[in-house]
């Protein structure tokens, strides 16, 4: 059986590639961070992570970002790919690569002033998140 699948917008936008983490604790809860005031999408809850630098592999970027943002140490071998989201914002097209992480050293704290919450997967659906993130929730739910 075939289904209608209308074509997407052909707009040409810069591509931004971001790696993000579902940090999963021993109780199966996932960490989310609130984007601080002054940043685009301030107040929305996101998965910690950030942009890849030129020629930087996503795993390397994520280990770096988690150290910078949360003060935790992990290792590339502790990152398990979950899936991705691809979303067109007004100014750029985001490719969001998501990894699950269950092992790290240190206690996450918001080093850039961001609030943190540990939530069960069913609670994630209730959060105000960037539009790109919603498709990731099903992928995370399938994993946990
Ligand atoms: N880390 C992260 N970023 C996300 C998520 N969802 C989503 O749309 N984004 C967007 C927000 C930003 O436009 C981009 C991440 O960039 P970033 O965190 O490195 O940069 P930023 O805008 O916070 O600011 P800056 O570091 O350039 O100062 O990806 C998410 O779940 N986690």
From TrEMBL:
<dbReference type="GO" id="GO:0046872">
    <property type="term" value="F:metal ion binding"/>
</dbReference>
<dbReference type="GO" id="GO:0006260">
    <property type="term" value="P:DNA replication"/>
</dbReference>
<dbReference type="InterPro" id="IPR020084">
    <property type="entry name" value="NUDIX_hydrolase_CS"/>
</dbReference>
<dbReference type="InterPro" id="IPR000086">
    <property type="entry name" value="NUDIX_hydrolase_dom"/>
</dbReference>
<comment type="similarity">
    <text>Belongs to the Nudix hydrolase family.</text>
</comment>
<keyword id="KW-0479">Metal-binding</keyword>
<dbReference type="InterPro" id="IPR015797">
    <property type="entry name" value="NUDIX_hydrolase-like_dom_sf"/>
</dbReference>
<dbReference type="GO" id="GO:0008413">
    <property type="term" value="F:8-oxo-7,8-dihydroguanosine triphosphate pyrophosphatase activity"/>
</dbReference>
<dbReference type="InterPro" id="IPR029119">
    <property type="entry name" value="MutY_C"/>
</dbReference>
<keyword id="KW-0515">Mutator protein</keyword>
<dbReference type="InterPro" id="IPR020476">
    <property type="entry name" value="Nudix_hydrolase"/>
</dbReference>
<dbReference type="GO" id="GO:0044715">
    <property type="term" value="F:8-oxo-dGDP phosphatase activity"/>
</dbReference>
<keyword id="KW-0460">Magnesium</keyword>
<feature type="domain" description="Nudix hydrolase">
    <location>
        <begin position="13"/>
        <end position="141"/>
    </location>
</feature>
<keyword id="KW-0378">Hydrolase</keyword>
<keyword id="KW-0234">DNA repair</keyword>
<dbReference type="Pfam" id="PF14815">
    <property type="entry name" value="NUDIX_4"/>
</dbReference>
<keyword id="KW-0227">DNA damage</keyword>
<dbReference type="InterPro" id="IPR047127">
    <property type="entry name" value="MutT-like"/>
</dbReference>
<keyword id="KW-0235">DNA replication</keyword>
<dbReference type="GO" id="GO:0035539">
    <property type="term" value="F:8-oxo-7,8-dihydrodeoxyguanosine triphosphate pyrophosphatase activity"/>
</dbReference>
<dbReference type="GO" id="GO:0006281">
    <property type="term" value="P:DNA repair"/>
</dbReference>
<protein>
    <recommendedName>
        <fullName>8-oxo-dGTP diphosphatase</fullName>
        <ecNumber>3.6.1.55</ecNumber>
    </recommendedName>
</protein>
<dbReference type="GO" id="GO:0044716">
    <property type="term" value="F:8-oxo-GDP phosphatase activity"/>
</dbReference>
